[in-house]
């Protein structure tokens, strides 16, 4: 019987290298999880940085929903006004987004 001690050393070193990589990944992963924001925290931070975009989105969605409701209930004039308001709100949102990007780029 021949013993293959050279192979065991190579296998031991491979296992040690592999284990060190696994440990490193776990350490890096745990660090990134500590710094991760919740949805509410991220929304609050983004809203504080550029409040025009979420406000514009809310106005756009509200005008669309009320305009569709008015159209369904036979009020074409109100529906037309709401669709025009929706277009204006979309423009406001896009301008707010561009201003926010410009301010972020300037920092």
Automatic annotation (TrEMBL):
It is found in: Mitochondrion membrane. InterPro entries: Hypoxia_induced_domain, RCF1. Its main location: mitochondrion. One of its GO terms (cellular component) is mitochondrial membrane. Pfam families: HIG_1_N (PF04588). The keyword Nucleotide-binding does not apply. Residues 24-107 form the HIG1 domain. GO terms for biological process: mitochondrial respirasome assembly. Keywords: Membrane, Transmembrane, Transmembrane helix. It comes from the Eukaryota. PROSITE patterns: HIG1. The chain crosses the membrane at residues 52-71, 83-106. This is HIG1 domain family member 1A, mitochondrial. It comes from Daphnia magna.
